[in-house]
Amino acid sequence: MALFQNRKENLPGEKGSGVLVLGGVPSGSPVEGISISDTSIDWTPEEERRLVRRIDSIVMPLLMLAFFALQLDRGNIGNALTDFFFRDVGITQNQFNIGQQLLSVGIVLLEIPSNYILYRIGPSTWISGQIIAWGLVATFQAFQKGLGAYLSTRLLLGLCESGFIPAGLFTITRWYKKEETSKRFAWFFIGNMLAQAISGIVAYGVLHMRGIEGLFTILVGFIFATLFPKGPSDPICLARFRYFNERESRILTLRVLQDDPTKEYSAKNITGSEIKRTLSNWRLLPHVLFTILGLAPSSTMWSYAPSIVNTFGYERLRSNALVSVGQWIQLVLNVTWGIVADRIGQRGPLVFLGMLLWWVFALACRLLIYSKDEHKRFAILTLAISCSSIWHPVNGSWMALNTRSAGERSITLAIFIMSANCSGIIGSQLFQQADAPLYRTGWTVIISLISVALLCTIWANVQYRLFNRRLDAEGKDKVRYRY
């Protein structure tokens, strides 16, 4: 296999790298039947851009719709707290926190096994099955009563949801080139943020919506199963509709291969060496740490923001709608961060900037807990919510770009989402019943967590620069890392 001229900005296995590390890719991947040895480019840039726009109109909306359904089922419980949820179910606030922890534990437990299955059977089959499964759980949780039913339902919901987010992110990497992923990762997370924003508004107008979102999710699962294409080289859905003709499919496949030759070989299993290499990659450590520590307070906001706004003097159901203001702002900032990251070709600085904004506004929330100006407190809380996780999708893209094979990328993205859900285990306990309603201790812990997370973002940025500088000084013909 021919080696390309090395460049400083190259990644492991990227076109132009001095070392190519080949790894397995899942069934239905964009490499079947087409080889990287076919280097001919018989299409125009405009033709490629037109095909990418079609991918954006087919693949991304279905993935975003599925994420929307996921967050609607997972996060609507925060709005239910203003609807006498504790009284209706028969649990206390601390017991509620434990249930939220079990949700995250369930997701973490099956994250990597779920991605292993995805690798074998492909996204269209596995993701649609997951959607229907958690939709059924979300539907029947409307009938829960008592602590046992509540805890078991939250755990089961987490088990069914595990693996969906990294599966979606991994699927995006199969359709898009590396410099296109940050923006698409951000689009994917729009489904999550849109559900957060809309659920508050819906809860304001609809007092009892438990179970309705579960039925909606089941419908989404069947839509996804019917319409989602298998892959760029086999762009056919279950409904037997072919989205791209033979020439278009060849272009979509080759453009990805020429961008990342590691996707050339197909295999239905992730190799043991890929798993070992990923789990022993110490450079992932700062990413894992700042994901856990930075998102833990964000998960607290998902559950308690409506209740906090309620303490500002706003009517309890109106509080749900008001919280969505920050979530709508976050949606815009999320897309902006992804677009800018792809445009400037750097992810690390934007992750740091997003975390810095989150720290500044969270600190302001802590300093204002005794303020009598409730409108000011609401404004600062809204800004904090709007910046709480805008760095998260860009971090996922950053981690994916620094992998050496498709299998390693799959496990890395699973670790990425496992870290995010570990944050939920911590975040579920930050606001305790005895600390209500100001949550002075809780806000102090939040500031501490985000402060450490901010330091870890600096660590992540510096480590790649130092590593590349050392390679330059030694004159080694090895791949460089992205930051």
TrEMBL record:
The chain crosses the membrane at residues 125-143, 155-173, 185-206, 212-228, 284-305, 325-341, 350-371, 377-401, 413-431, 443-462. Keywords: Membrane, Transmembrane, Transmembrane helix, Transport. InterPro entries: MFS, MFS_trans_sf. It is a multi-pass membrane protein. It comes from Rhizodiscina lignyota. This is Alternative sulfate transporter. GO terms for cellular component: membrane. It is found in: Membrane. Coiled coil: none annotated. The keyword 4Fe-4S does not apply. The keyword Membrane applies. GO terms for molecular function: transmembrane transporter activity. PANTHER family: MAJOR FACILITATOR SUPERFAMILY (MFS) PROFILE DOMAIN-CONTAINING PROTEIN (PTHR43791:SF32), PERMEASE-RELATED (PTHR43791). The lineage of its organism: Eukaryota, Fungi, Dikarya, Ascomycota, Pezizomycotina.
